[in-house]
Design a protein that fits this description.
The complex is a heterotrimer of chains A (about 650), B (about 475) and C (about 100). Helix content of chain A is about 75%, strand content about 5%. Chain A has about 650 residues and is an all-alpha fold. Chain B is mainly α. Classes of the chains: A mainly alpha (about 650), B mainly alpha (about 475), C mainly alpha (about 100). The interface between A and B is large, with 52 and 54 residues.
C-alpha cells in the first residue's frame, strides 16, 4: 500500500508567496532590504517544499496512482460547486519545479539588479504576488480557479511591466499587455461558460478538470460547439502566450525590469498558455479542427516572430521575439497532439531563455544600454580580442551557452527538445514542418547576429555620432556580484544538461506515442542552425553597419520586418478609427439624442405647456369664481342628465 | 431592535438640529457615532443571521393604521441583509467624508443623517406603505444637498436627478396601487401578501403581464436602466462627494431591490414574460455606457457611466430569473455599491484639494500621493472584475446563471468587461502613472487615520468577500432560492 | 302651509342675486355682501329642509353657517381694510398680485 501525497506541502507552496506579498505591502514597504530577503527566502522555501514532495510523487507515479486532488468548496450555490483545489500529476510537479526553481534564482538575481531602485520593496511584493498567481495556475483543479489565477498573473504582469510607472512607455506597455491578454480572456470565459452550459444541460455540471474529462463523452456536445469551446479557451492561450495575432504586447512588455522579463515574459507566465493547453488537452482531443488551428497558429507565430527578430536592435526586443517564436513551437507541438514535446521544450526553454534574459540584464546593468550596437561598441576602444569576455567572463560564457542551446546545438538541452518538436512536425502537415525548419535557420541567424554584434564585434565598424557619444560615456564594465552570477551559472548548467533530465517520464502518457528519431532530420536541422549562425557571423562581423545599405533588394522586406508586419499599426488604426469612434458616437448619442432630445425635449415641452396654461391664471378672483361657478353648473347639469338617463 | 436602524441616524439628525452650528467637533462626533452605531448593529445582525432560513428574520411589528392594513413592520432576509450591510459600510465611510464639509457643516450633516436613516428605512421595512414613504423620504435631502453643496452645473444636475427619480416613483406608485387594489387584501404587509399569493398560486397571468412594466420601468429609472439612465452621470458629477457615494453606492441599488422585492417575488410570470426586454436593455446599457465612458473627460462622468454599465449586469442577473444569476445580481449590488462609493470618495478626495477632476488633469499621483493612488488602482481593478475582489465573483455568477437563458446577451456582457478595462486602465494610467504633474506639488496624501479609514473600510470589504464569497452568498442564496418559482 | 317649492324658489333667487353680485361687482365690500346673501340662501334651504323633515339637523347646520359667516366676514373685512391701506382702493380689478 502506498500512502497518498502530502497536500500540505502544496498548499504551503501556494500560499507562502501570497502571505509574503501581503506582509511586504503592509509592513515592509519602508524596509526594502528585509522585504527582498524575505521574498527570496519565501521563494526558496516554496522550491524546497516542491522538492520535498518529489519522492512521494515518484512513488505514486510509479504505481499509477496519479492524478490526485484535494479541494475546498469555494462557492456552493444550488447546482453549482466551485472548488478551490490542488490537482497533482506529473504536469503539475514539472511546472511547479520550473516556476519555483527558476523563480527563486531570479528572485536572488533581482536582489542585486534592483538594489538601487526606490521601489525595491514594491518590486518584491509584486514579484511574490506573481509567484503566488503562477503557482495557482499550475495547481488549479478546475476551470474557474485557472481563470482566477490567469487574471491574477495578468495583474502582476501589468504591475511589473509598468513598474517604472513614471515612464509613459512603461505604463502604456503595461496597459497594452493587460488589455491584449484580456481580449483572450473574454474568449476563455466564453469557452468555459459554453462548456459548463452544455455539461449542466446533461446534468453533469462541473468545472473540475478530471470530472469534465470523464463527463465529456456523456455530455455529447455537438462537434461544432466543441470546436468553439476549444477555440474560446485557446483564445485565452493566444492572449497569454502571445501568439499571433495577440502577440503585440510581449515585445512592449520589455519595458519592465529585466529579471521580470526573464521570469514572467520568458520562462513562466507566457508559458502558462502552453501549460493550459496541456492541462485541458482532453478538450482539444474532441475537436480536430481546433487542433489544426492551434498547430497553424503556433507555426505562423514561430515563423513571423523569428523574422521580426532579425531586424531588432534592442537586445531585449530580440529576445522577446525569440520567446514568441519558441512559444509558437510549443503551441504547434500541442496542436500536433504532442503535449510531451511541447512541455519538454517549455522546460528547456525556461532554462536557457531565462538565462539569456538574465545575461542580457547583466550586460544592461554593466553597460547601461539595451542597444546591441552600443553594447558591442562599448568595449571597442580597448584593442584586445573579445573585450567583453575579459571583463564579464561569466556573463559572456553563459550567454553563449544559452545561445547555442536556443539554436539547438547538441548536446545542449535545446537540441533535445527542439529535435522532438521537429520530429512531431515531421509527422504533421508538410507546410507546418517547413515553417518549423525555416524557423530553425532564422533562430540561428538572429542569435548569431546578436552574439556577433555584442561579443565578437569588429572594430572596423563605424558608429553613428549619437552612439559614439553614448559609448564614450559608458562606465567601466565589470561583473556585478555573486547574486547575479550565481543564477547565471546554475541556469547554464541546466541549459547544458536539461536534455538528459527525466522530464518526459513525468508527464502523463496520454498523448505519448513513440516516434522514430530519424538521423537525417537531426542532420538537416543542425545544418540549418549552423548555416544560419555562420552566415550571420560573417555578415555582421564584416559588414558591421548592417546589410540593408548594401543590398537594395532587401530593403522592402526589411521595412516590413522593421514595422513588425504592421500589427501595431493596424491595431492603432482600429483603436483610433473604430473604438474611439464608437465611443464618440455613444457619447454623442448621450449628449444629443438622449439628453438634448429626449430629456431636455420633455422638459421643454412641459415648460411650453406650462407657459400656455399660465395664461389662465389672470389673478382676478372673480374670474376664478366665474370658472368655478360655470364648472360646477356644468357638472351639475351632466349629473342631472345622467341621472335621468 | 431592528427599528433602531433607521431611527438612530434620524435621531442623530434631530440631535444635530439642537447643537449650535459652531460646535463642529460635536456635530461630527454625533454623525460618526450614529453611523458607527448603525454599522455595528448591522454587523451584529449579520452575525446573528440564521443561515439557511429563507424567510424574514428579526421581524418586528407595530400596528399603525389597521383600517387600511398599514403597519410599521421591519425584518431582514438574505437580500436586504446584504443591502443593509452595503449601506452600513458606505454610510460609515461616507460619514467620514461628509465631516470634511467646510461650508454650512451643520445643515449638511443634518441632511446626511436624514438620508442615511431613510435608506436604512427602505432596506429594513416590510410594509409597502412605509417602504414607499421611506423611499420618497430619501429624495428630500438629496435635492438641497446637491443644490447647495454641489459643483459644476449643479442646478441642472439636481433638478434632473430629482425629477427623473420622482417620475420613476410615480410610475411605480401607479403600479403599486394597481397591485394593492387588484390584490383585494386591504393590507400593505409584504409578508402576508407573499404568504397569500403563495397559497393562491399567484395573481392572474394577464394582469401580471400588464402590471410588470410599470414596476420595471418605474424602478428601472433608479437602477439607471438604459435609456432612462441619463440622470445618473450628470447627477453624480453635480453632487457633493458623500452624496455621490451614497447615491451611486446605495440608492441606486434600491431600483433592483424593489424589482426583486415586488416584481420578481409577486409577479414572477410577468417578470419572466418581460425578462428578454430587460436583458436586452441591460446589454445595451452595458456596452453603450461603457463606450460612452471611454470618451468622458471628467472622472466623475466616467464613473457615472461606469455605474450605469455595471447596473446592466445586475439587471441581467435579475432578468435571468434563476437562483444563481439572482444571487450573483444581489452580490453584485453589494460589490458594485462598495466599489462605486470608494471611487467617488477617491475622486472627491482629489477634487477637494485641486478643484479639478479631468482625466488628464492629473498625472504621476502614484509618486505624489501613493496611498490614494494605490486605492485608486485597487478600486479600478475591482471595477474591471479582477479576481480577489468580490465584483469578480458576482459577475461570474451572473454570467454562469444567465448563460442558459440569454447566451447572446452574456456574450455581449462579457465583452463589456473588456470595455470596462479599457476606460479604467486609461484613467489609471493618466491619473496615477507618468511623471508628476508640476501643478500638484502641494497635493497632500491621506495621512490621518480618519482620512484613510473610509478607503480601507470599503476596499477591505471588497477583498474579504472576494476571497470568501461564501460569507455573503450563504446569506443570500436561501432567500433567492425561495423567491423564485 | 307654504309648500317647500316656494322656499326653494326664493332661496334660488337669493343665491342667483348673490352669485351675480359676486361675479360682476368690483367693490370688495359688495362682493362680501354678495357672499353673505348666498350663505343666507343656503341657510334658508337648510331651515326649510329642517321643517320639512321635522328634525333640527338643518337648523343646527344653519347656526354653524352663521357662525362661520360671521368669522369669514370679519376676516374678509380685515383683508379689505388692509387692501385699502395698501393701495387706496377696494376695486378688485386692481388686485392682481396672485397672478402667476
Amino acid at each position: 500500500m502506498v500512502e497518498g501525497i502530502n497536500f500540505s506541502f502544496f498548499w504551503l507552496t501556494l500560499w507562502i508567496p501570497f502571505l509574503i506579498a501581503v506582509f511586504i505591502l503592509f509592513f515592509l514597504i519602508k524596509f526594502p532590504r528585509l522585504a527582498s530577503a524575505l521574498a527570496t527566502l519565501g521563494m526558496f522555501i516554496s522550491f524546497g517544499l516542491t522538492l520535498l514532495a518529489l519522492p512521494q510523487f515518484y512513488r505514486l507515479h510509479h504505481h499509477h496512482l496519479l492524478p490526485l486532488e484535494s479541494s475546498l468548496t469555494w462557492i456552493s450555490l444550488g447546482s453549482i460547486q466551485i472548488e478551490f483545489g490542488i490537482l497533482i500529476n506529473g504536469l503539475t510537479i514539472l511546472m511547479l519545479l520550473i516556476v519555483t526553481g527558476v523563480g527563486s534564482l531570479i528572485f536572488l538575481y533581482s536582489m542585486t539588479y534592483m538594489e538601487k531602485d526606490e521601489g525595491y520593496a514594491r518590486y518584491f511584493a509584486s514579484l511574490s504576488l506573481f509567484a503566488f498567481s503562477m503557482i495557482g495556475i499550475v495547481v488549479s483543479n478546475n476551470f474557474i480557479q485557472v481563470f482566477i489565477f490567469w487574471e491574477l498573473v495578468g495583474l502582476s504582469s501589468y504591475l511589473l511591466i509598468g513598474f517604472w510607472y513614471q515612464k509613459p512607455e512603461a505604463s502604456t506597455a503595461g496597459k497594452k499587455a493587460f488589455l491584449t491578454t484580456r481580449v483572450g480572456d473574454v474568449g476563455m470565459m466564453l469557452g468555459i461558460l459554453t462548456l459548463f452550459g452544455f455539461l449542466l444541460q446533461s446534468g453533469l455540471g462541473t468545472f473540475n478538470f478530471l470530472q469534465t474529462e470523464q463527463n465529456l463523452n456523456d455530455a455529447a456536445i455537438p462537434a461544432g460547439w466543441m470546436t468553439l469551446i476549444a477555440l474560446g479557451i485557446f483564445l485565452g492561450v493566444v492572449g497569454k502566450s502571445a501568439q499571433v495575432p495577440l502577440h503585440v504586447w510581449l515585445p512592449d512588455a520589455m519595458e519592465g525590469p529585466t529579471p521580470v522579463s526573464a521570469l514572467i515574459h520568458a520562462a513562466t507566465m507566457v508559458a502558462a498558455g502552453v501549460f493550459l493547453l496541456a492541462r485541458v488537452g482532453f478538450l482539444f482531443m474532441h475537436s480536430p479542427q481546433a487542433l489544426t488551428i492551434v498547430a497553424w497558429t503556433g507555426a505562423v507565430t514561430a515563423f513571423l516572430a523569428a523574422t521580426v527578430a532579425l531586424t531588432q536592435n534592442d537586445i531585449k526586443k530580440i529576445l522577446a521575439y525569440s520567446t514568441l517564436s519558441q512559444l509558437g513551437y510549443m503551441v504547434m507541438a500541442l496542436g500536433l497532439r504532442s503535449s510531451e514535446a511541447g512541455m519538454f521544450h517549455l522546460t528547456t526553454h525556461a532554462f536557457f531563455k531565462a538565462l539569456l534574459f538574465l545575461g542580457a540584464g547583466s550586460l544592461i546593468h554593466a553597460i547601461h544600454t539595451q542597444d546591441i550596437w552600443v553594447m558591442g561598441a562599448a568595449s571597442r576602444g580597448e584593442r584586445t580580442l573579445l573585450p567583453l569576455f575579459r571583463k564579464m567572463p561569466i556573463t559572456s560564457l553563459t550567454f553563449i551557452i544559452a545561445t547555442l542551446a536556443l539554436m539547438g546545438i547538441p548536446p545542449l538541452s535545446g537540441y533535445h527538445s527542439k529535435e522532438e518538436i521537429l520530429t512531431v512536425a515531421h509527422h504533421g502537415p508538410t507546410p507546418i514542418f517547413w515553417f518549423a525548419m525555416v524557423t530553425v535557420f532564422l533562430t540561428a541567424f538572429y542569435m548569431g547576429r546578436l552574439v556577433t554584434v555584442v561579443f565578437f564585434g569588429s572594430d572596423k565598424g563605424r558608429l553613428p555620432p549619437a552612439l559614439e557619444h553614448a559609448v564614450s560615456h559608458s562606465p567601466s564594465i565589470h561583473e556585478s556580484g555573486w547574486r547575479m552570477t550565481f543564477p547565471l551559472v546554475i541556469l547554464a548548467i541546466f541549459s547544458v544538461i536539461g536534455g538528459y533530465l527525466p522530464i518526459r517520464e513525468m508527464l502523463p502518457d496520454r498523448s505519448h506515442f513513440e516516434m522514430a528519431h530519424g538521423h537525417a532530420l537531426e542532420l538537416i536541422s543542425l545544418a540549418f542552425a549552423l548555416s544560419g549562425f555562420f552566415i550571420a557571423f560573417f555578415l555582421y562581423r564584416f559588414f558591421p553597419s548592417g546589410i540593408s545599405p548594401r543590398f537594395a533588394a532587401v530593403r522592402a522586406p526589411l521595412f516590413v520586418l522593421e514595422k513588425k508586419y504592421f500589427f501595431d499599426a493596424i491595431y492603432d488604426f482600429f483603436i483610433k478609427n473604430v473604438q474611439d469612434n464608437v465611443a464618440r458616437l455613444s457619447d454623442a448619442v448621450e449628449r444629443w439624442v438622449i439628453v438634448r432630445g429626449a430629456v431636455n425635449g420633455t422638459a421643454f415641452f412641459t415648460r411650453f405647456l406650462g407657459d400656455r396654461l399660465r395664461k389662465l391664471q389672470t389673478g382676478m378672483v372673480q374670474f376664478y369664481a366665474l370658472l368655478f361657478a360655470g364648472g360646477f353648473t356644468l357638472i351639475l347639469f351632466i349629473w342631472i342628465l345622467g341621472g335621468r338617463a | 431592535m431592528i427599528f433602531s436602524l433607521p431611527w438612530i441616524p434620524l435621531l442623530g439628525a434631530i440631535t444635530i438640529l439642537c447643537i449650535p452650528k459652531n460646535r463642529i467637533a460635536l456635530l461630527k462626533s454625533v454623525v460618526l457615532a450614529s453611523c458607527g452605531l448603525s454599522f455595528l448593529i448591522t454587523l451584529s445582525y449579520l452575525f446573528r443571521f440564521e443561515i439557511g432560513n429563507s424567510g424574514f428574520q428579526f421581524v418586528e411589528r407595530l400596528v399603525w393604521l389597521p383600517a387600511l392594513g398599514i403597519q410599521y413592520q421591519a425584518g431582514l432576509d438574505g437580500i436586504n441583509m446584504t443591502l443593509c450591510l452595503l449601506h452600513a459600510f458606505v454610510s460609515l465611510a461616507g460619514a467620514f467624508v461628509a465631516c470634511n464639509t467646510a461650508v454650512r457643516t451643520k445643515e449638511y450633516l443634518f441632511f446626511y443623517l436624514v438620508l442615511v436613516g431613510s435608506i436604512y428605512g427602505v432596506f429594513t421595512i416590510l410594509d409597502l406603505f412605509f417602504l414607499y414613504l421611506y423611499y420618497e423620504m430619501t429624495l428630500i435631502p438629496l435635492y438641497p444637498m446637491i443644490i447647495i453643496w454641489g459643483s459644476k452645473n449643479k442646478e441642472y444636475g439636481a433638478m434632473k436627478l430629482t425629477l427623473f427619480i420622482t417620475a420613476g416613483a410615480v410610475v411605480a406608485l401607479f403600479g403599486i396601487l394597481l397591485f394593492y387594489h387588484n390584490l383585494g387584501l386591504e393590507t400593505f404587509d409584504l409578508i402576508q401578501i407573499r404568504e397569500v399569493l403563495r397559497q393562491a398560486g399567484g395573481l392572474n397571468h394577464a394582469f401580471q403581464k400588464f402590471l410588470t412594466p410599470f414596476l420595471l420601468l418605474g424602478f428601472g429609472v433608479i437602477a439607471s436602466l438604459w435609456p432612462l439612465h441619463s440622470w445618473s452621470p450628470i447627477g453624480y458629477a453635480a453632487a457633493p462627494t458623500s452624496v455621490s457615494m451614497l447615491h451611486a453606492g446605495v440608492l441606486k441599488k434600491m431600483g433592483p431591490y424593489f424589482v426583486i422585492r415586488l416584481a420578481v417575488t409577486f409577479l414572477p410570470v410577468g417578470t419572466l414574460y418581460w425578462a428578454p426586454w430587460l436583458a436586452g436593455l441591460a446589454a445595451i446599457g452595458i456596452l453603450y455606457a461603457g463606450m460612452a465612458a471611454i470618451w468622458q473627460k471628467d472622472l466623475k462622468f466616467m464613473v457615472g457611466f461606469s455605474s450605469v454599465s455595471h447596473m446592466g449586469y445586475v439587471l441581467l442577473g435579475i432578468a435571468a430569473m434563476n437562483p444563481i444569476a439572482l444571487s450573483g445580481a444581489v452580490f453584485l449590488m453589494f460589490s458594485h455599491g462598495i466599489m462605486a462609493a470608494c471611487t467617488f470618495a477617491l475622486i472627491g478626495f482629489l477634487y477637494e484639494q485641486t478643484h479639478v477632476r479631468g482625466v488628464d488633469d492629473f498625472g504621476g499621483l502614484g509618486k505624489k500621493v501613493p496611498f490614494v493612488a494605490t486605492c485608486f488602482v485597487m478600486a479600478a481593478l475591482a471595477s474591471l472584475g479582477l479576481p480577489g475582489f468580490s465584483n469578480f465573483v458576482s459577475e461570474l455568477l451572473v454570467f454562469i446563471g444567465s448563460w442558459p437563458r440569454f447566451p447572446g446577451v452574456v456574450v455581449l456582457a462579457v465583452f463589456g468587461i473588456l470595455v470596462t478595462a479599457i476606460y479604467l486602465l486609461r484613467a489609471v494610467q493618466q491619473v496615477c502613472y507618468g511623471p508628476v504633474n508640476p501643478r500638484w506639488t502641494e497635493l497632500q496624501d491621506a495621512a490621518q487615520f480618519s482620512q484613510k479609514l473610509p478607503f480601507v473600510l470599503l476596499l477591505g470589504a471588497l477583498l474579504v468577500f472576494g476571497f470568501w464569497p461564501h460569507g455573503l452568498l450563504r446569506v443570500i442564496q436561501p432567500t433567492v432560492g425561495a423567491i423564485l418559482p | 302651509m307654504i309648500p317647500i317649492s316656494h322656499y326653494l324658489i326664493v332661496s334660488g333667487i337669493l343665491f342667483s342675486i348673490g352669485l351675480w353680485g359676486l361675479l360682476l361687482r368690483r367693490n370688495i365690500l359688495l362682493i362680501l355682501l354678495s357672499i353673505e346673501i348666498m350663505l343666507n340662501a343656503a341657510n334658508l334651504n337648510l331651515i326649510a329642509g329642517s321643517s320639512l323633515h321635522g328634525n333640527i339637523h338643518g337648523q343646527i347646520t344653519a347656526f354653524f353657517v352663521m357662525v362661520i359667516a360671521a368669522a369669514e366676514v370679519s376676516i374678509g373685512l380685515a383683508i379689505a381694510v388692509l387692501l385699502f391701506r395698501k393701495q387706496e382702493s377696494v376695486d378688485t380689478n386692481e388686485i392682481k398680485w396672485l397672478k402667476g
